[in-house]
Amino acid sequence: APTAASVTGAGYSFVSTTCGISLAASETCAVVVRFSPNSTVHNSGMLTVATQAGNRSVTLSSTGIEGVASVNPGALTFGVQQTATSSAQTVTVTNTGTAPLQFTGIGMVTGEANFAQSNNCGLVAVGASCSITVAFTPVEQGVVTGTVGLAHDGGGVAAVTLSGEGRAASASLSVPSFGTTSVGSSSTGDAILSNTGVGPLAVTAPGSASVSGTNFAFASSNCPASLPAGQNCRIVVSFSPTSTTARTGALNLATGAGARQVTLSATGVQGFASTNTGALTFGTTQVGATAGSQS
User: Fold this and answer.
1) Three-state secondary structure of the chain
2) pLDDT band for position 260 (cuts 50, 70, 90)
3) Does residue 96 surpass a pLDDT of 70?
4) Are residues 11 and 36 in contact, defined by beta-carbon separation less than 8 angstroms?
5) Pairing mode of beta strands 12-17, 31-35
6) Binning pLDDT at 50, 70 and 90, where does residue 38 land?
7) In whole angstroms, what is the distance from residue 227 CA to residue 33 CA?
8) What is the mean pLDDT of residues 15-36?
9) pTM score
């Protein structure tokens, strides 16, 4: 059978032969056998060729090799993060297999609204590594999840899971107190802006604030354009009453957590003169003499 041979064993198959019907003395020919492993398990087989001198057999032996994708860490957890802010983490992918590992595609499978990935993975040699960088930019509040899919020609990990929590910016603004202020004078009150969120707080026009109401005016501010989480700053408002009429107004401040407004309230008091004695008594004084002075 010059055009065929008997091949047994998982993964082995006959391909072709150069042997003719007759083979001259000392002449050689070749039989080509293909090995197509579907695993890395060792496989044995047998090649048998029928000849006039009887069957001739050889043992076939081979082991499949493949690249294996191993990732570290296996999952990314971003924790609590303010919406519209970004952070990034990196996954290292190592080929721990016995053959080069070819990546054919890496991309977001789920969670693309809040997560994005970039990578430098292509053909990764045995023992070599590449990296996948994932950015988390939450656009919604609450816990969100995602998955990065890894398509390659080897074994091992095919996905990396992602999780994080988005939280909106938040801030509080205290009401300033002006105390007792005389008509014609001026006093100041401090409004404290506190960043109660988990990320930086944008402060629009930090060097000024909108103050309305008769006799109220913006005085100063030490607020930065971006107030770190857990920090506070001060807006100073002045009150300069022109009468004893009760005055009201408002302090408005635009922030990344939305507009913050507090009501201003104060009343001027009228100044008056007073003495520490109700009357002066000079006693008996001779006509033409001068009594001692009193105050």
Assistant:
1) CCCCCEEECCCEEEEEECCCCCCCCCCCCCEEEEECCCCCCEEEEEEEECCCCCCEEEEEEEECCCCEEEEECCEEEEEEEECCCCEEEEEEEEECCCCCEEEEEEEEEECCCCEEEEECCCEECCCCEEEEEEEECCCCCEEEEEEEEEEECCEECCEEEEEEEEECCCEEECCCCCCCEECCCCEEEEEEEEECCCCCEEECCCCCCEEECCCEEEEEECCCCEECCCCEEEEEEEECCCCCCEEEEEEEEEECCEEEEEEEEEEEECCCCCCCCCCCCCCCCCCCCCCCCCC
2) very high
3) yes
4) yes
5) antiparallel
6) confident
7) 72
8) 91
9) 0.71
> How many C-beta atoms lie closer than 10 Å to residue 59's C-beta?
9
Question: Radius of gyration of the chain from Cα atoms?
Answer: 44
Q: What is the largest CA-CA distance in the chain?
A: 172
Contacts of 165 (CB under 8 A, 6+ apart): 78, 79, 80, 81, 138, 142, 143, 144
Cis peptide before 73 (omega within 30 of 0): yes
